[in-house]
Structure formats: C-alpha cells, structure tokens
Amino acid sequence: MVEHNKDLVLAKIKQYFPHEVQGKILSSLSLSGEDRIQLAVLKLSEGDLEKLHIYLEAAIGDWRDVLVG
Questions:
Q1: How many domains, in total, are found in the chain?
Q2: Domain range spanning residue 59?
C-alpha cells in the first residue's frame, strides 16, 4: 500500500508541476511526512508553487492543518 501511495504522489507532482521543479518538490514534500499529507499538500496547492510552500509549511508545523483545513 505504501508503494502505491508513493506512486500516486509522484503522479500528482507530474500532473501539477513542470519537469524542472519536480525533483525539488519531491524533496521538499519529504519533510511533511506521510504520503497522505503530501497528497493533501499537492491537492491544496492546485499546481501553484507559492501555495505549495504555504501548505507545506503548515503541514510541517501541524499536519492536521492540511488534512482538516
């Protein structure tokens, strides 16, 4: 199940962001913990790097902020 979620995270990164920033985004998302948190951050970002950083910081502070919103 974990591998499936990691594949989904990678797919969402590819869906939302251009190739040149995907590696950096994956690296940054690893700071937020679990795959479900990463998926929430990606969804909330709507493909906007600025929003991604805002939601990533929120998730690092308290992951519930991005899951419950």
A1: 1
A2: 2-68
